[in-house]
Amino acid sequence: MNFELLYSDRIKQLSPSPIRELLKIAVKPGIISLAGGNPSPDTFPVKELKDCFLKVLEKDWKRILQYSPTEGNTDLIEIIKQYSRNQGINCETENILITSGSQQGMDLVCKVLLNPGDEVIVELPSYPGSIHTLKSYQAKLTGVPVDQEGIDIDILEDILKDRQKTGILPKFIYLIPTFQNPSGVTLTETRRNSIIKLAEKYGILIVEDDPYNALRYDGENIKPIKALDRNENVIYMSSFSKTFCPGVRVAWVVGPKDLIRKMVIGKQGADLHTSSLNQAIVAEYCRNNLMENHLKDILSYYKEKRDIMLESIERHFKNVATWTKPQGGFFVWMSLDKKENTDELFSKAVEKGVIYVPGSSFCVDGSNKNSMRLSFATVSNENIKKGIQLLSEIFSL
Amino acid sequence: MNFELLYSDRIKQLSPSPIRELLKIAVKPGIISLAGGNPSPDTFPVKELKDCFLKVLEKDWKRILQYSPTEGNTDLIEIIKQYSRNQGINCETENILITSGSQQGMDLVCKVLLNPGDEVIVELPSYPGSIHTLKSYQAKLTGVPVDQEGIDIDILEDILKDRQKTGILPKFIYLIPTFQNPSGVTLTETRRNSIIKLAEKYGILIVEDDPYNALRYDGENIKPIKALDRNENVIYMSSFSKTFCPGVRVAWVVGPKDLIRKMVIGKQGADLHTSSLNQAIVAEYCRNNLMENHLKDILSYYKEKRDIMLESIERHFKNVATWTKPQGGFFVWMSLDKKENTDELFSKAVEKGVIYVPGSSFCVDGSNKNSMRLSFATVSNENIKKGIQLLSEIFSL
């Protein structure tokens, strides 16, 4: 069989995730990886997960091992509803859909909204997993730069103005406004207010991807854009992957009822429903109010790592680079003043025994070639210091 | 926001699963449901599942609660490889992909192969979940009737001949050849040989959906079509949903390496990977050789129910209907001789306190209006008898 003749247009233009491929190559013993995007297994609440599993299995095995509604576990939906309301998000049961990770949330948003060639605005830089999904729906991606305060509102409005003239607006703006992956930047409150006004003015949707929201190590809490939503302009996604564990694949979407209904129809064809067992475990965990104390533990765990990374960067890169100071999440974004190319230097880093993700991997226009994403989440304190030092030896050559 | 202006073409033409909607309406206390497609919770190996969970959590929690490779758990892939080879399927590790239920297998097959308007051949009747997925990729569906020996090979070849003249062949033939959902029919060995020859002759793919394969209650075992595959014409899908439990959402695909690679790329955008935890539980269950004895138990469990249903139908419908005699799976397909319309009579059945799924729900051309799918899997022996009797009271009016 000649499969090349059979493949769909969408799959022909897709490549494997560059980061996933890069990580496969770079896994050699003893290497210090500042490249991962994973949460630390040290933060997984193993004992509590076990207890919750045993409890739900005992009391409810007939239901939680069976097929279940596409919308999600009703207890978990109620928990998400309450949690969302506490975040200032106005929502009912019908606004919520449980998904198999936020990756699926993104997939269903695209399934429901995108025709091939539709334009979507993404941040420069942005999360490659979502870019991959957008490309799989043959979206035309337009990047808008992020600075220390988040996406550049002026450039964004210029684009919207321009598109309004042509009569064809982008289908949505995809944002990770809080502790952004990869930049670590948080969109300011002022800009959140501006962007929701833009969305209303131009009648455009915002897809707010917010997996790191609960991982704030310092600074004032800022409400999600969704909490400012008055006219159903915002689709909000978040996840238990970073606060509980990724292996259960449980996440959620809060959006306009009509759109959620369409996403349910899309999900019926995609995987019928998210694992009933895993949803029940997560619901039991939340119901027993275990999340609050757990979050305290993991916040102090990650805060220490972030501090060590920022101190190490300060020590080694003071006069040769600029970098972000994230108040939460997993990532620091560092840009080299002399414009060294981080793609080209990657193999040198591997030789030295340290890896990062080159900045261009996150940019739909291939920009930010002098930048890199550095994650502190899964690295020992000692190795964060050592890794940053090794990096400095490469880039000050 | 006016969402109607924003929705994609694919979602605009999709309706919610008719069966899922029908079952929502029809759930009232005391009703006997012969409509479900679920396995019986009585067959779920709860204790063993618990033991496997505890074991894998203890020895491997750092890995099984973390993100994991898109391809699937390597142990589970090896188990599937061995199992497939025992079925006569020639395969390597790279031929296998673990999916979040076979529904996702179907979704990824479509993602990789279908452009809007591409033709796919399906059985009349066929599984609505897959039809839903096919429609979500805007496939043009052509139905080929199933008789007591499976899909009609002559009609199928006529269609292929015709399409060959136009130069545009269907992208694939979607088949559930063993204990078909909904008809219960099994494609004979002779026809399996014919169909693989057709696939080779016309250079066309077959998607073999085989979730009920292990649930044979009597008769001789027949090899999957995939075991006859010489030229990479067959993509095989099966699942742990019916033999273990559906709540874990673990299934698999065996296909040509190049195509599996493309499906992996598609899955990266869809849900990153199937729950690492659930894959580990299933792998542990299989590794401990628990499946073999478990299957013996559930086969005798379901066989009794099938026998009771066939006896009851024989008693009540002898001279007014024809029906299939499935050697495995969950379903009997019954067609009323006087061509009563099972859609129209559905509300009467609900009144009587019994439900089925009308035949037209399974047919892309709306045919088989005088047929219905009857499932014995989740119904008590007493209620199978009572349900069939109640049905006979409606249809002999």
Automatic annotation (TrEMBL), chains A, B:
Coiled coil: none annotated. GO terms for molecular function: pyridoxal phosphate binding; transaminase activity. SUPFAM superfamilies: PLP-dependent transferases (SSF53383). Residues 31-389 form the Aminotransferase class I/classII large domain. Its cofactor is pyridoxal 5'-phosphate. It comes from the Bacteria. GO terms for biological process: alpha-amino acid metabolic process. Homodimer. PANTHER family: AMINOTRANSFERASE, KYNURENINE_ALPHA-AMINOADIPATE AMINOTRANSFERASE, MITOCHONDRIAL. Belongs to the class-I pyridoxal-phosphate-dependent aminotransferase family. This is PLP-dependent aminotransferase family protein. It comes from Biomaibacter acetigenes.
